[in-house]
Write a structure and sequence with these properties.
It catalyses: 2 GTP = 3',3'-c-di-GMP + 2 diphosphate. The protein is an alpha+beta fold and about 375 residues long. Helix content is about 70%, strand content about 10%. It has 2 domains: about 1-210, no CATH class; about 220-365, Reverse transcriptase/Diguanylate cyclase domain (Alpha-Beta Plaits, 2-Layer Sandwich), CATH 3.30.70. Strand 2 (about 280-285) and strand 3 (about 285-290) form a beta hairpin.
Length: about 375
């Protein structure tokens, strides 16, 4: 039998698993929000990282370093050579197709730098004012490119972050929908399981009622056949019990009192039988008793005990022609449990029962039956 708290525990367990799965999902999204976004931003911005700086930034640095060398006095050949190298590096980083295509100041700036490089290579005299004027346009152009590229990088980063946030919002919403659907499916499964359990329980109750006598609560003829089938091949004892002059009892006291007498006799018989014995009502005032019986002495002792227990009960019977109390007539037989054995045993026990009635009732008789002939 299922304990009452088990369904509640099962519901709590399922709910706990659902909440834990949703919590794990939320922790994952929180992790992405708090740790992945800074990683993405650092990747795009590359602030403080030399390898991530733009080409324009590095070109401007080399250009500034070259200008600083040219402004250093005296300008010997070694200084001019080093300045030439720095300006050449700046020129190579500046001279790319993206800058030429997107920034109009690139062409004039490269021309000015190229002119300066030629003059450096030719050992021309370079005045300070001329140097500043020659490199002012390239410096301004590189700064403009650098700022524009930084703005574009920030815009791309913001768009990427926004797309990622929107994507994660969709993931969160989808996960919530999946969670709700899973919970709904579980509820549907649980309702279906309950309906199936209720249907099975009702079927078992109906089957139990179908095998039960509604008045006395003991088994009926169908239940007796089922129990014989369950004990197939075993030696059994069968008692047919009939209440003497039960019709007269009903006629004198009424059927309600007759029903009460039947229930009282069921209690008396069941109290007198062994635990393995089973009692059945076959109809009217006729009962049957089945029990494991390995010898004739057990069968005789059971009959004796049953009849004497009723005598000791002294249940009044105002219409009994031979006694003031209710009496039994019992026919008994031993048989081997099978369909054929039960049928033959029933016929033999019924014959013994009528022998008791023909002798005046209030007694028992045991029929003999070849158990080997009807064991199949």
């Amino acid at each position: 039998m299922v304990e009452p708290r088990q369904p509640l525990r099962r519901h709590v367990r399922w709910l706990w698993l659902s909440v834990m799965s949703f919590t794990a999902l939320m922790l994952l999204i929180a992790y992405q929000t708090r740790w992945v976004y800074p990683e993405i931003h650092a990747y795009f911005s590359q602030s403080g990282n030399l390898t991530g700086q733009q080409l324009a930034t590095r070109a401007r640095v080399y250009l500034q370093q070259g200008l600083d060398l040219l402004l250093t006095l005296p300008r010997d050949s070694d200084t001019r050579e080093r300045a030439y190298f720095q300006l050449k590096l700046a020129y190579s980083l500046f001279d790319i197709g993206l800058y030429r295509r997107d920034y109009p100041c690139t062409e004039p700036s490269l021309a000015a730098m190229d002119d300066l490089l030629v003059r450096l290579q030719g050992n021309d005299v370079l005045e300070t004012g001329h140097l500043r004027e020659s490199l002012l346009e390239p410096m301004r152009c590189l700064t403009e490119i650098e700022m524009h590229q930084l703005d574009r990088r920030s815009t791309v980063t913001a768009e990427f972050v926004e797309q990622t946030r929107r994507h994660q919002g969709q993931v969160l919403l989808g996960s919530l929908v999946i969670f709700v659907m899973g919970l709904g499916f579980w509820l549907m499964h649980e309702l279906q399981r309950r309906r199936a359990a209720r249907s099975a329980r009702e079927s078992l109750e109906w089957m139990a009622k179908a095998l039960c006598d509604p008045l006395t609560g003991v088994g009926n003829r169908s239940a007796m056949h089922d129990h014989v089938t369950a004990a197939w091949g075993s030696p059994m004892g069968l008692l047919l019990v009939d209440i003497d002059f039960f019709k007269q009892y009903n006629d004198s006291l009424g059927h309600p009192d007759g029903d009460r007498l039947l229930r009282r006799l069921v209690q008396l018989i069941e109290g007198n039988l062994e635990h393995e014995a089973r009692l059945y009502r076959l109809g009217g005032d006729e009962f049957a008793v089945l029990f494991a019986c390995h010898d004739a002495e057990t069968l005789d002792e059971t009959c004796r005990s049953l009849v004497e227990s009723l005598r000791a009960a002294n249940l009044p019977h105002p219409s009994h022609p031979h006694s003031e109390h209710v009496t039994f007539s019992v026919g008994a037989v031993r048989f081997t449990a099978s369909h054929a054995g039960l049928e033959a045993g029933y016929v033999a026990a019924d014959g013994a029962l009528y022998q008791v009635k023909s002798r005046g009732r209030d007694g028992w008789a045991i029929a003999s039956l070849d158990m080997n002939e009807v064991s199949g």
